[in-house]
Design a protein that fits this description.
- This protein is α+β, with helices and mostly antiparallel strands.
- The chain is built from four helices and eight strands.
- The protein has a six-stranded antiparallel sheet with strand order 3-4-8-7-6-5. A two-stranded antiparallel sheet has the order 1-2.
Length: about 180
C-alpha cells in the first residue's frame, strides 16, 4: 500500500510525509507580505499595520483605504512567491492631525512641494475613497524621505528596494501613496 510494508512506513512514505510537513508553512505565504490570494487582490483593506511598517516616516495613520498585491501575479492562482516579487501598495490614509501641514511647511527651500493632480489610474475599488483629484501636493524629496530606511528600524521600508510617490492633500488632511517594493 503506497509506502507501507508490513505496517511500517517505507522510504517513499517518509519522504512524502516530510515533504508535506516542509511545505505546510508555504501554504500561507501569500500572507507573508500582508497580501491575500489573487481572488481577493482588489479587495480594499482598512488595516494600518502594514502601512506603519512600510511607511514609518508618515507617522500614525488612520482611516486607511488601500490595496496591496503582487504586480506579477495578476490573473494567476495564489502560489509560492517568486524570487523577485513586485508588491504594489496603493491607497489613501489620514495621518495625525496637522502632519500634512507640518510636512508641507518643513520642505527645504530648494525642494518645495508642487501642486499636482492625482494620477488618472486610481484603481477602481479605491476611487470612492479619494475625495478629490485636485489640490494634491508632491515632492520627490518627500518621496525619498518616506521610503528611506531607518537603520534603527530594520525593514522600515518593508522591502529590499522601493519606489513610490506620496501626495499630500492639506484641505482633507490625507496622504495618497503608490509604491512598489521589490523583494529579491
Amino acid at each position: 500500500m503506497g509506502g507501507m510494508r508490513d505496517g511500517r512506513t517505507g522510504r517513499r512514505g517518509i519522504l512524502a510525509l516530510l515533504g508535506g510537513v516542509a511545505l505546510a508553512p508555504l501554504a500561507g505565504t501569500a500572507g507573508c507580505a500582508g497580501l491575500r490570494p489573487d481572488e481577493d487582490r482588489l479587495r480594499v483593506r482598512t488595516d494600518v499595520g502594514p502601512l506603519h511598517k512600510r511607511f514609518a516616516a508618515l507617522g500614525p495613520l488612520s482611516d486607511a483605504h488601500w490595496l496591496g498585491y503582487d504586480l506579477d501575479a495578476a490573473g494567476r492562482r495564489a502560489s509560492v512567491p517568486g524570487p523577485d516579487a513586485r508588491i504594489r501598495l496603493v491607497g489613501v490614509a489620514r495621518p495625525a492631525p496637522g502632519a500634512v501641514a507640518a510636512a508641507l511647511a518643513a520642505a527645504p527651500a530648494g525642494e518645495p512641494f508642487e501642486t499636482v493632480a492625482l494620477a488618472g489610474d486610481v484603481p477602481a475599488p479605491l476611487a470612492r475613497h479619494v475625495p478629490d483629484r485636485a489640490g494634491w501636493r508632491a515632492s520627490p524629496a518627500y518621496d525619498l524621505t518616506v521610503l528611506a530606511r531607518d537603520p534603527a528600524q530594520p525593514g522600515a521600508a518593508g522591502g529590499d528596494r522601493a519606489d513610490g510617490r506620496f501626495l499630500l492633500h492639506e484641505a482633507d488632511d490625507l496622504v495618497w501613496f503608490d509604491a512598489v517594493f521589490l523583494y529579491a
